[in-house]
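The instructor's notes for this session suggest beginning with a concrete chain rather than abstract definitions. Hand out the sequence below and ask the class to guess, before any prediction is shown, which regions might be ordered.
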Amino acid sequence: MEKSPEETPSLYDLYGATSLLNLERSIAEGKIPTAAELADVLEANSEKPLPPWFIAMLIEGLRGKLNRPRGRPKDSYLSNTE
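After discussion, reveal the predicted structure:
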């Protein structure tokens, strides 16, 4: 069953800096958003109903429970292929 054009996400929805879909994907990849990134996404999407996972992420961010791993970031595949 194909999605209608209204249900199909646009490129902005998939890759925009303030897109909920993009944020959800980056969290699934293990990236923890900064408070500024959360604020930008909230501001851009404040007119729509927000998903429960985003509200939970905001609450954790406001309570200071979103912590990035300390130390040097792990090497990526691209940094090893020179």
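Then share the key points. The chain has a mean pLDDT of 80. Residues 33-67 form one domain.
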